[in-house]
Amino acid sequence: MKHALHSRLVREFDTIEEVFTIGGREFLLVRPRNADDLITEADYVKDERLPYWADIWPSSMMLAERLLEEKGAGRTLIELGCGSGLCACAAALSGFDVLATDYYDDALRFTELNTRVNAGSAAKTMHVDWSAIPADVGTFDVVLAADVMYEPRYPAMVASAIERLMAAGGQAIVADPGRIAFPDFIAECSARGLAITDEDVRAFRSGEIQQTITIYRILRQGL
Length: 223
Hints:
alpha/beta, Rossmann fold, seven-stranded mixed sheet, globular
């Protein structure tokens, strides 16, 4: 039986259901069929927002694969930019207590549905603007992000968010396909006492699409 949220989203959006095989496990994701259909002039004029969340990116698939290899039981995790929820699904299945966040409220609704379907229960969700992290959001054992350095202003915002949200003894796990702004992110992390301690390079291949995705582990310097 379809959940009521599924019925609402299907009524409101032209949706597609896709199966992704990640780490030998199948994920059934519901998402908007075409992200371009979601572009609005008002959002773009306001802050140049584009609905990147509606696509499933290679970095998200590789990061989800990594998450399925993690032991999450007893650990908290926050995702910065959850999109349609693939990584949140994988994190929940690995036992993490997940808080999925995004700047788009619609992304949170799809993530709620997709985690309910794939992980057995809906992940907690929250609307979060990286430039103004809510004071009451707390800190987390893992701060997660996949392919979020696609605008020049984002490296500083994401580094600051990681610094704010990472618990003592925690870590950030960030997947990137080689965005031109990523070196700026490394510099912004260093300025905040954060250091990359591990680089996990993974090859993504799907048809004619081939990408090299690097998954970075970030800790506070000196730990």
